[in-house]
Design goal:
Elements lengths: L10 E9 L2 E10 L4 E6 L8 H11 L3 E9 L10 E2 L1 H18 L7 H4 L6 E2 L6 H70 L7 H14 L3 H20 L4 H21 L6 H18 L4
Parallel strand pairs: 3-4
Antiparallel strand pairs: 1-2, 2-4, 5-6
Helix pairs in contact: 4-5, 4-6, 4-8, 6-7, 7-8
């Protein structure tokens, strides 16, 4: 059984139909949002479809800001709403010119006068509401299907970027773990040397100094943070492999990674590995931004 795709919350879909000889287009735009937020721009004759369209979107999408726009060119007013019958106008012109010739008249034919003759200008026919709604639904379904394809394609791109980011983070953590023992030993030696210099000539107990150095090294130990970061990375990979609507899971894990890498960087003061800790924080921030676009 094929696993569900990872879905992006970003996408665009367009569907078209014709009604009354005129085109009708539906466009659906989506961007990321923590919940499902749907906005409509519908012409007045289709306003009553809003609730039904909203219900269909809720079945298809779980999260994101969704904007549905319906463009119907028949929604016009004034002169643009009228058609000119060129066939009727041509017949009038031919007959009037014949009359001019027969009677020897030379007065010009004025277009504005011709337009008032019966049948030249035709008012738009009343649109069948059911036909209009059928066309709107047809265009809407096409737009929704195209949107779904776009969100799947973008989701595949996001999943690939997340996988690469996880690999980079794991590599940085591995380099920190490799260098950490030597860095801790050097830090402890520096601590002991510095304290010895400060307490030279005093009656401080060398054993006490050694214990303080050991405690300082323990406080700088990042083993627990590294363990949790690796665990979160494994969970991220598991969710990506599972697919489907995993955005909330990814966002939670990325937030946990933010916390762990912040602690890691604060503990990692050794100049040899501090740049890697900062780079790890940067990778986690990229993961968090990408995860915020997954449905």
């Amino acid at each position: 059984m094929k696993r569900p795709d990872v879905l992006s919350m970003t996408g665009f879909g367009r569907g078209c139909a014709r009604v009354g000889g005129r085109p009708l287009a539906v466009e659906i735009y989506t961007v990321n949002h923590r919940t499902l937020l749907v906005k409509f721009r519908l012409p007045e004759p289709l306003a009553r479809l809003e609730q039904a369209l909203r219900e269909q979107i809720a079945k298809a999408l779980e999260r994101g800001t969704v904007t549905v726009c319906v463009d119907w060119s028949a929604v016009v007013s004034g002169a643009a709403a009228y058609d000119v019958s060129t066939e009727t106008l041509t017949a009038y012109v031919r007959k009037l010119r014949k009359v001019q010739k027969d009677l020897g008249l030379s007065a010009p034919l004025v277009l504005t006068d011709l337009a008032t003759l019966p049948g030249v200008l035709r008012a738009p026919r009343a649109m069948d509401p059911e036909a209009l709604e059928r066309a709107a639904w047809s265009a809407f379904r096409k737009a929704l299907a195209e949107l779904a394809r776009a969100r799947r394609a973008e989701g595949r791109t996001l999943a690939g970027a997340l996988e690469k980011g996880i690999s980079r983070l794991e590599a940085l953590v591995a380099s920190i773990e490799k260098e950490q023992p030597a860095a801790l030993r050097r830090a402890a030696e520096r601590f002991k040397t510095r304290v010895a210099e400060l307490l030279a000539g005093s009656d401080a107990n060398p054993g006490d100094l050694a214990r303080e150095a050991a405690l300082a090294a323990e406080r700088a130990d990042t083993a627990e943070e590294i363990l949790r970061i690796r665990s979160h990375c494994r969970q991220l990979r598991t969710h990506l492999a599972r697919g489907g609507r995993i955005g909330r899971h990814l966002e939670f894990l990325c937030q946990e990674l933010v916390r762990e890498t912040n602690t890691l960087a604060s503990k990692t003061q050794a100049v040899e590995i501090f740049p890697a800790a900062l780079a790890a924080k940067g990778e986690v921030e990229k993961l968090r931004e990408q995860a915020a676009n997954v449905e």
